[in-house]
Each structure stands twice: as C-alpha cells, then as structure tokens.
Amino acid sequence: MASISTKVGNFSIENPVILASGILDETSGSILRSLRSGAGAVVTKSIGISERAGYPTPVISEVKTGLLNAVGLPNPGIDNFVEEYKDFPEKKRTVVSIFGGSVEEFVTLSRRVEAAGFDKVELNLSCPHVQGVGSEVGQDVDLVEEIINEIKRRTNLQIWSKLTPNVTDIVSLAKASEKADALVLINTIRAIGVEIYSRKFALSNVVGGYSGPGIKPVALRAVYDVYKETGKDIVGVGGITTWEDAIEFFLLGARAIQVGTAFLYDDYRIYSDIKDGINKYLDSEGFSKLEDIVGVMVNNAARKGD
Amino acid sequence: MASISTKVGNFSIENPVILASGILDETSGSILRSLRSGAGAVVTKSIGISERAGYPTPVISEVKTGLLNAVGLPNPGIDNFVEEYKDFPEKKRTVVSIFGGSVEEFVTLSRRVEAAGFDKVELNLSCPHVQGVGSEVGQDVDLVEEIINEIKRRTNLQIWSKLTPNVTDIVSLAKASEKADALVLINTIRAIGVEIYSRKFALSNVVGGYSGPGIKPVALRAVYDVYKETGKDIVGVGGITTWEDAIEFFLLGARAIQVGTAFLYDDYRIYSDIKDGINKYLDSEGFSKLEDIVGVMVNNAARKGD
Amino acid sequence: MLHAKVISIKRDNKDVFTLVFDSKISAEPGQFIMIWVPGGKEIPMSLSSTSNPLAITFRTFGETTRTLATLKPGDRIFFRGPYGNSYPKPTGKVAYVGGGTGLASLNSMILKYDGDVFAGARTKDDLFLIRDEYKVATDDGSLGFKGTVVDLFVPHLSEYNYVFVCGPEPMVKSLIDRIDKKAKAKIFFSLERLMKCGVGICDSCSINGIRVCKDGTIFELQEVLKMTEFGVSRRTESGKIEFFANAKR
Amino acid sequence: MLHAKVISIKRDNKDVFTLVFDSKISAEPGQFIMIWVPGGKEIPMSLSSTSNPLAITFRTFGETTRTLATLKPGDRIFFRGPYGNSYPKPTGKVAYVGGGTGLASLNSMILKYDGDVFAGARTKDDLFLIRDEYKVATDDGSLGFKGTVVDLFVPHLSEYNYVFVCGPEPMVKSLIDRIDKKAKAKIFFSLERLMKCGVGICDSCSINGIRVCKDGTIFELQEVLKMTEFGVSRRTESGKIEFFANAKR
Ligand SMILES: Cc1cc2nc3c(=O)[nH]c(=O)nc-3n(C[C@H](O)[C@H](O)[C@H](O)COP(=O)(O)OP(=O)(O)OC[C@H]3O[C@@H](n4cnc5c(N)ncnc54)[C@H](O)[C@@H]3O)c2cc1C
Ligand SMILES: Cc1cc2nc3c(=O)[nH]c(=O)nc-3n(C[C@H](O)[C@H](O)[C@H](O)COP(=O)(O)OP(=O)(O)OC[C@H]3O[C@@H](n4cnc5c(N)ncnc54)[C@H](O)[C@@H]3O)c2cc1C
Ligand SMILES: Cc1cc2nc3c(=O)[nH]c(=O)nc-3n(C[C@H](O)[C@H](O)[C@H](O)COP(=O)(O)O)c2cc1C
Ligand SMILES: Cc1cc2nc3c(=O)[nH]c(=O)nc-3n(C[C@H](O)[C@H](O)[C@H](O)COP(=O)(O)O)c2cc1C
Ligand code: FES
Ligand code: FES
Q1: How far apart are CA C26 and CA B143, in angstroms?
Q2: Taking the CB of residue C52, how many other CB atoms lie within 10 A of it?
Q3: How far apart are CA B233 and CA C123, in angstroms?
Q4: Using CA atoms, how far apart are residues D135 and D171, in angstroms rounded to an integer?
Q5: Mean pLDDT on B208-231
Q6: D3 contacts in B (CB within 8 Å)?
Q7: Each residue of B100-159: pLDDT tens digit?
Q8: CB contact under 8 A, A194 and B167
Q9: What is the CATH superfamily name and number for domain A6-305?
Q10: Average pLDDT, stretch C187-192?
Q11: 3-class DSSP string for D127-158
Q12: Residues 105-144, chain C: which have Cβ within 8 Å of A?
C-alpha cells in the first residue's frame, strides 16, 4: 500500500486529511474525536483576545451548492482557551487558529499559544480591518506581511497563513506570507442568501462566508496560482467532500487538505473515506507515495520559487 | 395577472428574462430563436475589433456545481458582425456585447455598433489588460471609468457595464461606472478544473470562468453590495437556473436578470419557466407588478444614491 | 428553508402554546426542527406531534418564542429539519418521564405508543399537555405528588421495560444519579443543549465530543453515563465552559 | 469526464480505425461522444456501435484523430456523453446511405436493424466497415458503381419506407436537392458541424438557430428543408459565416 504521510513545513503528518477551522472544533472533546476518527491533524476554531458570543442565529444557511455561514467568530477568548487545553494530550497534532485586528493582537495570541505548549498557529486573517472601511485584515498585503514577520520574530511557532479569496490578487498575499511555513488556501467567499417567502436575509449578519462544493473550482485556482508562483507548502481547503476532490488539490500542489463543510454530507466518515480513496488511487495509478503526485500538474519550469 | 415588464435605464422590456452573453448567441439565427422562445431581450456574444477563433477545445468543462469555460472570445470581428446583422429585425431587443483591450477599441466598436442601428452595448471588461500583468481591463477602476465616459461622450448608446467579480471591491468598479445606464453583475469567476486520471487540466486554457448554480451566492452578494451603495439599475446574472433564483435577485435590487448556464439544465424552456414562476409568485404573494419587489430587501435608509 | 401554514395555535397554560401546522415533511417522534422568525432568531424546537398535522409546543422564554406565540392561523412558519435521531420503538411496559418543556418532545411518542406518563412542573399552573391519567408531580404540591417528577418516578423504575426521559439537564442528571444502573429497563434520554446549527457542524451542542443535535438528541443511558460533562458543565454561546449550579465537579 | 479502457483497435483501411472500448454508458444509435486527448483537443465522434462493447470508427484527419489511432488495448480513452438525439426505430424496408465517415454513425443502426446499405467513397481504398452485401459507389469506379453514392441511391428511393443518411454536408445537400420531396419514405439525416461544446450552449454548430449537437444530430427531411443555411454556409471557429464551394446562395 502506498504511503500517504506528508509534511507541511516541519510538521510531519501521518495522513494529509485535516479538520478545517470552525467546524466541530470549538470543544476539546470534539477535537479529540476527530483525531480518533482519523484526522491527520486538526485546526481549532479561531481564538481571539477576548470572549465573543458570535452572531445571533441563523448563523448557517444551506444552499444547493454548499453552505453560507456567519457564525461571527464566537470563542471563549485566549484565557479560557488556555485553561481548557491545559492538559490536552494532542497539542502536536493541533494547529491553533487565531484571529485579531492588529499586529499586536496576533503577536499576543501567538505568544500565549506557544506558552500553552502548542507549536503551530494558523492565522485567520478575515477579521474586519479597523483602518480599511469594510475590508478585512487579510486583504491588506502589508499588514499580512507584518503580522507574519512579527510572529516569526517573537515566537518559535510554525505559522500557517490562511488566505482570503476575496481579493483581486491572491498571489500577492501569498508573497507577503513569505516567512510563513505554509499557506492555507482558501477561506470562505463573501456571499449572501435570500429567503423569498419572508423576503429576509438567510443569515442574521446578512453577508456570510460561502463554503462547500460550490467553491472548489475557485479554491483549486488559488492553489494553482500560488503554487506556480511561489512553490510554497500549501494546505488546500474549500469544497473538498470526496477523495477525488482531495486528489485534485494534491495534483495542483497541496501537500495536505482540510475538510469542513464535508461534514454536512459525510460526517466523521469523511476522514476514512478520503484516506481510503487516496490510497486506492495511488495504488491503482502506480504511485508509491502521496508526495509523488504533489504538484505534478504544475509545470516545474513554469513554477518559480523552487 | 401581475405585470412583469421592467425598465433598465431607458430600455422598457416586456419581461425581465434576458439571454446572457456567450450562450447561444454567436449566430443571428439563435438570437432570433431566443427572442421567439420568450426572452425579453438578448445580449450577443462579445464582439471585438478583429476575428478570433477562440481557444482550442476543450472550451467547457461541467462540474457538479456549474460550468467552467474558456471559450477564448471567439468572434467574427466587428466587420463580419455588422455584415451579418445588416437586415436583422430585432435590433432594439438586442444588446451588443463588446470587448477590447483599450479605450480606443471600445469607442471604435461602440461607434460601429451604433452605426449598424443598435442602441445598446454591454461592455465585457474581462479582456486581458496590457499594462497590468495577468489582470483584466475590468479590474482597473480608472480604465473602466474612462471607457464608459468616452463611449457616453462619443455615442448615444445606452451602456450596460458588466462587472467582474474577480476583485477585492466590486463597489468601486460600480462607482467607476457612474455614467453607465445599467450595471450587469456578474461575469464568471476565475477557476480551474482538473481531470485526475489523466492529470491534465480540464480546459485547454487551464484557467477558465466559473458559471452556474455555484456562483449564485456570490452574484447575489455583488448585487446587494452594489445596489445598497449606488442604487443604480442592475441586471443580475450568475447561477440563475430557476424562477426562485430570479426572485432572489429582484429582491436585492436587480431590475432584470440574465440566464446562461441554465441552458444546460433547462434549455429553451428556461424563458417560460422563469416567467411563469415570477408571475405565480407575484400573484400568490400579493404584488401587482414586478417593480414592487425590486430591491425591497435592501433597507432604503441604508441605500445611498437614491 | 421550508415554510408551512399555521393551522391553529392554542394556549396550553399561561406561557405554553401548541402551534399546529400544515407540512408534508415526514418526521419521527423525538426529532426537532430549527424554527425561524424571519428577521429574528432561529431556535431548536421538538415536534410535539410527528403525525399529520405536525405541531410544536413551547414555553415563551424570550423574543423568539414570544413572537411565535403571536402567530395566527394562516400565518407562515419558517423552519428547517427535521433533525436528530428518534426514539426507538418500545416493547413491554413503557414509562415517559417529562419535566419542564420535556413533555413536548415526549408527546410525539405518547401519541404513538401507550405508556404511563410521569409529568413534573413547579406548580399546577406550569403543567401543560396533561391528561387525567398522567401521574403528576409539582414542587409545591398544588397538583398531584409534592416533589419532583424524579422523586415520583424513581421508585417505579423496576416496573418498566422502556423508559423515555426528557427535561432540563439538572433534572435528568438527578434521575440518572438516583436510578439503579442495572435496571432491566432500556432508558432513553432526549437531551437539550444550546444549538446554533442543528446539523452537526458548529460544535455548540457537544458534550464530550458527542453532538446532541446529530448524534442525538436521543441517547441510551450507557451513552449518557460516558459523558463526564453531562449535568456538570455546558458551553455558553462563546464556547466557554460554564458549570451548572450545584454540580459535583 | 468519463474514461474507459480500450479493448481493441483495428485498422479498417489506410486511414480509418475502429476503436472498441469498455464502458457502461448506455447509448442509442446515432448518438455521439466528445472524445478528449488529455492535453490536446476534444472532438465529436459518433458511436459506430452502441451495444456492448461500444466503438468509434474514425478517419485520421489531424492531430487528435492521429493520436487516437496510436492507442493500444488497455490504454484509457477520455470522453463525455453520449450526446444528441438518436435515429428512430424503422419499420418496413430500410435503406442506409453513407458517404465519407458517415458510415460510422450509420453502423450503430445497421447492427440493430436490417436494411440495404449504400456506401460511397472516393476510391476502393477509402471504403471501410464494408460487407459483401453492401451496394458500393466509388468516384473512380475502382469498386462497384462509378459515381457518387447519391447517384447510386436516388433512383431507388421509392423502394424504401425508412432512409437514414449520413455524410459530408455537400453530399447530403446534393441528395436532398435531387430527391422527390413527396416520397413515401421517412428520410432522416445525421448532420455534422463544427462542435465546441457538444451540449447545446456555445452556438458553434447552429444552422438557422437549430443546434446540430442538441436539437440533432438527427433531423427529418422537413426540418432540414427549413434550414436555409444548410449546404450553403457554415460557421468557422470564430463564428464567421463561410460559404460552401459551389453552393447556390
Ligand atoms: C433539541 C431542542 C429541543 C427543544 N424543544 C423545545 C420545545 O419543544 N419546547 C420548548 O418550549 N422549548 C424547546 N427547546 C428550548 C428552546 O429552543 C428555547 O426555549 C428557545 O431557544 C428560547 O428562545 P427565545 O428567543 O424565546 O428565548 P431567549 O431569550 O433566546 O432565551 C431564553 C432561554 O432559552 C435558551 N436558549 C436560547 N437559545 C437557545 C438555543 N439556540 N438552543 C437552546 N436553548 C436556547 C437560553 O439558554 C435561555 O435560557 C428545545 C431546545 C433544544 C435544544
Ligand atoms: C457529430 C459528429 C460526429 C462525428 N463522427 C465522426 C466519426 O464517427 N468518425 C470520424 O472520422 N469523424 C467524425 N466526425 C468528424 C470529427 O469530429 C473530425 O474528423 C475531427 O474533429 C478531426 O479532428 P483532428 O484533430 O483529428 O483534425 P483537425 O486537424 O482538427 O481537423 C481536421 C478536420 O476536421 C474538422 N474538425 C476539426 N474539429 C472539429 C470539430 N470540433 N467538430 C467538427 N469537425 C471538426 C475540421 O473541419 C477539419 O477539416 C464527427 C463530427 C461530428 C460533428
Ligand atoms: C461554520 C463555519 C465556521 C467557520 N469558522 C472559521 C473560523 O473560525 N476560522 C477560519 O479560519 N475559518 C473558518 N471557516 C472556514 C473553513 O475553515 C474553510 O476555510 C471553509 O469552510 C472552506 O472549506 P470547506 O468548503 O471544506 O468548508 C468556517 C467555515 C464554516 C462553514
Ligand atoms: C460558455 C460561456 C461563454 C461566455 N462568454 C461570454 C462572453 O463572450 N462575454 C461575456 O460578457 N460573458 C460571457 N460569459 C459569461 C456569462 O454571460 C455570464 O455572465 C456567466 O456565465 C454567469 O451567468 P450564468 O451562471 O447564468 O451562466 C460566458 C459564459 C459561458 C458559460
Ligand atoms: S448545534 Fe451545531 S453541532 Fe449541534
Ligand atoms: S456544439 Fe455547442 S451548441 Fe452545439
């Protein structure tokens, strides 16, 4: 049987299927359940400086092609998070997602996460950007660069930079993430849902993030563009619901993938379904290890950064 | 029965269902067929200065949630176009889509279109932008503004400005289209398709435009954002395959809608299916005319520009 | 999002209402819906009848339930679901044990399978969906047994083959603490937790990694016993751990 | 995109090949697939057998068909479809009239319904899928009748109840021009045009607003007679109108 282990930055993972931030990872109990159910690693729900209740319901709305959500970054705040995870046995397989509105917030959170015994953070850069009206921190190339450089300078954490697709040019965000150990592509796409019989918005926050099958073609394009231009380690995410989807991401350069909305369709079986599928594909297509297909479709000549 | 007539700029249309550019509108015969099958109006395939064969096949690739295409703007060039449409009987219900790489090209095309007896152009701003590497004309706010202002100054055409969603801020493009008579939202989203057993790209051009059900939530968000911020006349397009989809666009501010990829699922019946549905909805929900629901979900107080 | 017409709405007591609606969804006893007040919140609500016509029975707690209580026949309700698993089909002698609005969820079973119903409330005026033959407990003794429904039921446990329990978490916890874990009866609990998504992805309803909305809401005794957090702590809307008053930690 | 294993590939003559492949798609006689050479082009191809196993029969025109001709048993082919409508079930006396690679499309019918086959080609060496009983015409008289298959067939039209025609547009046009429009036979034509999408959205195959790929490829005589562009002009890849040589405009 082929080997499906992988490496993202310095992180060696037994298998490339990772739980995405924000889905079934608000409680340590569920994080352990995912790891026991076969996830190679998990990312926590994004944690901020202080406690937030999130938006009122409805916070999700299913559409034919996926899911809209505006959960509103509910989280217990870093103090309560650190307290809950004091004796957590799986710190090395858990990537802590953090969000903030400024460089200082990101640095503070990172240092707390490191002090708590974790060694990897994922940066959720989708927080509203105080300076820019209506824009997100993650749309500001300079700010992204500064956040990453400062965390790198002031901690020993591995940094996964999770980029937003809501920009004209995702490659420039990837380049601003130069010092990150890996790029996570993509976060949700801004979208809206309408209920025509009440003529009300489907989410309490009106605008939400779109995830699931419908965003996969966009996520693949982001992975392709960024891998071709930077050659960096990439974790692919966005609409992966089957093992075939996962293979598409690997072929374009992803070294691991995350699943979120797939839980709606496949629940906890998603881990074994994807792992089994990858294994069968590698065997039947004559590859001995996952690494052999990573990025093979992206012409090496055309790819910079290697 | 409720009235479903509508008005976009100065254009009064008997019904709000319009054929989108690029789908079954390369030949005058098919354009007449759409009008006879119940379209309120049609938009032609985008016409450029000179003849283009487009990209080699494969130029389309179906995905679960819609369609990827990279047809490559095949068109006979403006000379041949004018020749074919010399005696065309439906010039007033036909919006001519044009594309170009510069202000001058757009103006030249517009003048030819006007001279040929048409009175409406739709600007397809998705052409590669010569100055900007890899970017599109339609992503450059200043260029969009200049193109529209120049066409307005030098012709009497009504201008529909069709915006690309591949930008950080679609509202600024809408504002740059201030002088346009209407905004058409949205063009396709850049995306990629992969075939895992051959490990080849699904389209000959690698990157293509994503359309169909999967982009509807994104198109709705664009219509909402732009209507709220500008109050301009909007033609909604992107993923409309049922009458319910059409209603969603009207409620957020679209005065008419276009259908393209829907032909894959519903073929020419799409016109009557959507029209019948709108009629039934208006009747059963107690509205006497389509206009009564246009934009009702967008808080008037919050909406600028009125 | 589905919508349906209200057929009737009836006040069961001072703050409990039963809303009957016309929908073709097929649901099993014990399942719940996420009911939405357009422009307002979406909340989980058990179906108090799962055979045609469907119904919900709710106490007016806050804004959402108060708005639902103002609906009139012919108005629309908006919801999604049904969600969650359902009560298993019982055999032998059956008991239902309900406290608070728990009787709403049990009612869909009671309509289908005969059994002895034990219902508890603070006072006589807080009871609802009650029939003469029910065994009633009130905290103040204003009707039936004076004490909790747990006090009333526990001595009778050995008489039953199937027991279905639904009520506030502290009540359920106290029942579990006091019963013989080796009783012959199969005992099922319908649990309630804060629910944001209802479909098993947001983690807001999880107890020790078990989602009430999707893995439940109905669990057998042995499953609940494994939940070390049950009756001890729950999550607030932020995901923060909050301890129940008087809970043994 | 579907894929299937090549079972066999056989050279029918100097530049025509029949490729048999193993696929579970169900197709009707007259339907076509869009076959793709990964990394290269995707082209329309009729199924020359629509019962298991499926087959295509093609002339090596350019890069794509030449690449297909190099495939070996066990190799994969990639395709989507089947697309298009199909030939109707005939009754009575049946004739098949094929010119060029037209016989490929007709072959799926010939395998199912007996009939007289009229096949034409430039020379003896250009013929393929030919059986002894077929009535053959060659331009140079190197086999059978000297002349076109249209010359050979037209005098016999009145003998048939159903006629199925497939061939290059000028051949089909000349047949239509020369036959009695009031003949008792039901005559069906399988048309070929430049096809980019194959699914009825790109308009590249349209004749007077009728899409060959989706409204066809099979049309009855009356439908073809309404196509004023048929045999007169077609579209190039750019959508430009191009006139057939010698076409009466
Ligand atoms: C599976 C399930 C089934 C339920 N079935 C019934 C039922 O049949 N009848 C009934 O009367 N009640 C039922 N409830 C409780 C019901 O959901 C709450 O009473 C309701 O959410 C209160 O909303 P509100 O806006 O009126 O009050 P709020 O002002 O929002 O809150 C009042 C109280 O309700 C609780 N609550 C608020 N939101 C939620 C939420 N999303 N999930 C759970 N609790 C919440 C709060 O803890 C608070 O104590 C059920 C709850 C769950 C989880
Ligand atoms: C519905 C349909 C069914 C067909 N069935 C058969 C068949 O059973 N056997 C067979 O040999 N041929 C068939 N053809 C023709 C076949 O598609 C062309 O021979 C093939 O596209 C040539 O591709 P190439 O790359 O080898 O040659 P190219 O170098 O691309 O071109 C050679 C010739 O093929 C024509 N051609 C190229 N692309 C297309 C296209 N997309 N659509 C139509 N014609 C094209 C060109 O006009 C040119 O004259 C069919 C065509 C259609 C429309
Ligand atoms: C309900 C929900 C909550 C989410 N919360 C977060 C979050 O807190 N932080 C974050 O970085 N991404 C969050 N995401 C985005 C996902 O991590 C992921 O990037 C996105 O959903 C695309 O992947 P998918 O299609 O597999 O779900 C959330 C997504 C969903 C559906
Ligand atoms: C095959 C195809 C070709 C297209 N060609 C054009 C074009 O030439 N000009 C243009 O402005 N838009 C073009 N589009 C975009 C459509 O007009 C429309 O904006 C988009 O497909 C979204 O709508 P839909 O989801 O209803 O298809 C094309 C779309 C498709 C699918
Ligand atoms: S309510 Fe979201 S997981 Fe249960
Ligand atoms: S090939 Fe595209 S419409 Fe026929």
Answers
A1: 56
A2: 10
A3: 61
A4: 17
A5: 97
A6: 197-198
A7: 999 999 999 999 999 999 999 999 998 776 665 567 889 999 999 999 999 999 999 999
A8: no
A9: Aldolase class I (3.20.20.70)
A10: 97
A11: CCCCCCCCEEEECCCCCCEECCHHHHHHHHHH
A12: none
Pull the structure tokens for residue A271: 């881990």
Give me the residues of D, 68-107, that contact B with CB < 8 A.
76, 78, 80
What is the C-alpha R_g of chain A? 18
pLDDT at site C249 = 46
Nearest C-alpha in B relative to A200: B297
Closest C-alpha to ligand 4, atom 12: B21
Asked whether residue B255 carries a pLDDT value surpassing 70, the answer given is yes
Instruction: Extract the tokens encoding D65.
Output: 């068909």
- Residue contact C237–A54, C-beta within 8 A: yes
Q: Which tokens hold the place of D182? A: 């009031």
D101 contacts D126 by C-beta, under 8 angstroms: no
Ligand 3 pocket mutation, candidates C201, C211, C213, C238, criterion most atoms within 8 A of CB: C201
Is B127 marked active-site? Answer: yes
Other residues' Cβ atoms within 10 Å of the Cβ of residue A270: 25
A214-252 pLDDT, tens digit each: 999 999 999 999 999 999 999 999 999 999 999 999 999
Closest partner CB to A192 (pick from B190, B221, B244): B221
In angstroms, the CA B263 to CA B256 distance is 18
Domain ranges of chain A: 6-305
* Cα–ligand 2 centroid distance for A298 (angstroms): 30
Q: What are the start-end ranges of the E strands in D37-178?
A: 42-49, 54-59, 76-83, 94-99, 116-121, 135-138, 145-146, 162-166
Query: How many CB atoms lie under 10 A from the CB of residue C190?
Result: 29
Strands A158-163 and A182-185: parallel
Nearest Cα neighbor of A24 from A36, A34, A38 is A34
Q: Are chains C and B touching, using the cut-off of 8 Å on CB pairs and a minimum of 3 such pairs? A: no
Q: Where are the alpha helices (DSSP H) in chain A?
A: 28-36, 77-84, 103-115, 141-154, 170-176, 216-230, 243-251, 263-266, 270-285
Residue ranges and CATH numbers for the domains of chain C are 2-83 (2.40.30.10), 94-243 (3.40.50.80)
pLDDT in tens, chain A (306 residues): 889 999 999 999 999 999 999 999 999 999 999 999 999 999 999 999 999 999 999 999 999 999 999 999 999 999 999 999 999 999 999 999 999 999 999 999 999 999 999 999 999 998 776 665 567 889 999 999 999 999 999 999 999 999 999 999 999 999 999 999 999 999 999 999 999 999 999 999 999 999 999 999 999 999 999 999 999 999 999 999 999 999 999 999 999 999 999 999 999 999 999 999 999 999 999 999 999 999 999 975 455 444
| Confidence (pLDDT) at B133 | 57
Atom of ligand 3 nearest to the CA of A75: 8
Within 10 angstroms of residue B199's Cβ, the number of other Cβ atoms is 16
Choosing from B47, B71, B127, B222, the catalytic residue is: B127
Structural contact between residues B151 and B159, judged by C-beta atoms closer than 8 angstroms? yes
